[in-house]
Hints:
A: alpha/beta, Peroxisomal Thiolase, Chain A, domain 1, 9-stranded mixed beta sheet, 14 helices, 18% strand, B: mainly beta, 2 helices
Amino acid sequence: MIPCAVVGVGQTHHKSRRRDVSVGGLVREAVFRALDDAEMTMADIDAVVIGKAPDLFEGVMKPELYLSDALGAVGKPMFRVHTAGSVGGTTAIVAASHVQAGKHRRVLAVAYQKQSEGNAQFALGSGKGASLGAGGAFAPFIRAYIHRSGAPEHIGWKVAVKDRLNALKNPYAHLKIEDISIDKVKASPMMWDPIRFLESCPSSDGACAVVVTDEEGGRTAAAAGRQPAWILATSSRSEPPSFPGRDPVRPAACLQCADDVYRQAGITDPRRQLDMAELYVPFSWHEAIWLEAHRIAEPGEGWRMIDRGETELGGAFPINCSGGVLSSNPIGASGLLRFAEAANQVRGAAGEHQVDGCRTALAMAYGANSQYFSMWVVADRLHPFD
Amino acid sequence: MTRFVESTITFPYRRSLGPMLSAFMTALTERRILGIRCGEAVLVPPMEWDPATGAALPLDLVEVGPAGTVQSWTWVPAPTEQHPVQRPFAFAFVLLDGATTPLLHAVDAGSAAAMADGMRVAPRWRGERVGRITDIACFVPGEQPELDGDDTGPAAQPVEIMDYNARITYRNPVPPSADRAVELSRQQRLVGMRCPQCERTYVGGRGYCPIDSIELGEEHEIDLAHTGTITNFVIITPVQYPGQTETEPFARVFVLIDDSDVVLAYQPTIELPVADVRVGRRVAAVWASPGEEIDAGGGMGVSLGALIGWMPTGEPDIADPDLVNRIF
Ligand SMILES: [Zn+2]
């Protein structure tokens, strides 16, 4: 397998409504930032991979066709990826796979959502009434986690505050709640018991793009003083939405995906060998749930890491220093944002929300009924554990 | 014979046009057609980027037409209500004077015999224009633009948003196993299919075990109890959207069926106020009365055929700390 690296990252300023741009204009903002970052132009790109959530969100069928010329993909291979909320992560993995297989040398991965053009609740409810929404679907999982772990209710509030404080350090983040506090989260309306409004992700317009290149491209960037993010491992797993005994708090597909990505990367002790993680946390309690389902914490211990402040920026194991999905949620792009933010951390390019000395990072996205998982591990060198 | 369920969904999408399309749409309300310069070319309709290279284009707009030349066409003998002209017409590539790329639009020429490559056409403008491509009702033969109805004049403000009522009708096949589950529910039977390999039971006519990839049929059917225990739940605060049917918080519960491993997920409740929903609560199935219309389409959070929901039995709660983990 050919080693590959991220050499360019770009994203839009995420907002509830980007009424100043078309869908094409929105996507191109992220693309040109990524190309500029990689010191490339569209002509340097061999293939384009695009991901977004279901077409019902914006009502644009086959956006991969509609956007091919906007993305400079005329005459080039163009691929559409579709794995629900995990799609942004899977898009990055498909791009990396093309390079790893030796099929293409420089691949552009793009993901976006312009939520303001439609309505997510409508789309998630297949256009019918009484839509559960994502919060309605996930609230029972969170109730189960709280019961089985014995976690106190302030854990959810704490994550909600932490991620919004991180967002204040991220110029691209959507939510900028200057006066965020435990009291403010606690006082926000109960949306899907036990999930409160401020424990939920926003609805955003936004896009993200990364340029993935081969070993030679990574070394060229490094020689020019532009630190690449070496992709040590990628993995995706899925499982059926329901069957008797399925545990959505600790999904088998998530555990398998994490095990696979760690094995490929040479990670035997993720808590010690990883410096940070960008995990897909659309509702605050998912931070605790995913810490455990990624074996970063033992079962029942994830919430204690949060309670001790270890997942804060500056803590022992920072999570979602960008502000995460809780601060910006252009659904289709949210997964790629996790992958891109992890890459920026190991590139030392995360700006104000940089984790000091970050050398290895995990990114994860999940989707649908907690059944699709995508992950990658990136590092500042190809063999960090030798 | 496979049965199909037809569904129609509609949604009012709101498009933000961006600076270039906004200028194009605003000009349409002024009965002007704009193209954009791209090197030597003039692209109509204008694009935000060079279609060949993806390079950004400066906002160098140029008025074209209004008349133009048909480059190619196809006849539509039987228009549907979604077509722009409600009598037989042509879709044509119209190269507007001054443009280098053709605009795809309708030509109302009366008959196919009146259509020809190279024919000259001009726009028939709608009197009431809102900043959409359909502000041009169609093109008509000749050099002179026409006006259809009273002229309401150009838009007062630049057109930046386009409302778009999307509608789609689609047909989903219903597997025979799902049909049978609905039919059995009409007989007030809650029937599961037990996988011979892993012994998990599936309700709702899934027709296969997703763990073992084994097809399940009538020989695997078992009748299940009509009572169970709430293991978990969600109270949903309804967000309003077009098509939303709920205005007040409503509950969806997870019911572990007695004497089985079956959990029915996201079930509606009946005669159970949301404040009284709790883990451990005993509930019984409520069936639609014979002849009552039922939703045979299925889906998450939707009733299962004639099993329309669950109501409290009045029995004491079950106290089992592990119940809450039985979501599926
Ligand atoms: Zn089985």
